[in-house]
Here is the input.
Amino acid sequence: MVLEIEIYGSKKLREKAIEVEKVDDSILELLDNMVATMKKIKGIGLAAPQVGINKRIFVIDIDDGITRKIINPKLEYLKKLVSNEEGCLSVPGVFKNVDRFERVKATYLNEKSEMITEEVEGVLARAFQHEYDHLEGILFVDKISPVAKRLVNKKLQLLAKEGQK
Ligand code: CO
Here is the structure.
């Protein structure tokens, strides 16, 4: 099932998400629906708060042959900051550079409740950091430069009118 995406301005994007206690059928169904939604709109990542669910869950698929289903993630930042362009399904039409760590160590539960630890870099490391921020109620536009922010402010205000509906 394809889920509806919360848009910039929605309060649901601004809450701190809650840890998952048990990976039960409802969580598995949510993960499947999130993957279907991400693929339908050709995103490379989607976090539960973006579909209005206040849980520490996200999915990532950067076209490397693996669809990651991530529950209760912890991130350790390992290597220098790099700036690159980002966008977000919840902030349509806005693309700006954001500083992210080049490499991160991620520890999380997968859909089989297995504890996974992996070191990721580049686009994948960026996706992990972007999606993790969603669980903290942070959006990438919070992290862009003041100059970039000024350029997209009007657009954000228009989106916020939509998002609050
Ligand atoms: Co996003």
In short: The chain has one domain: 11-163. Residues 146-163 form the longest helix (18 residues). The chain has a mean pLDDT of 95.
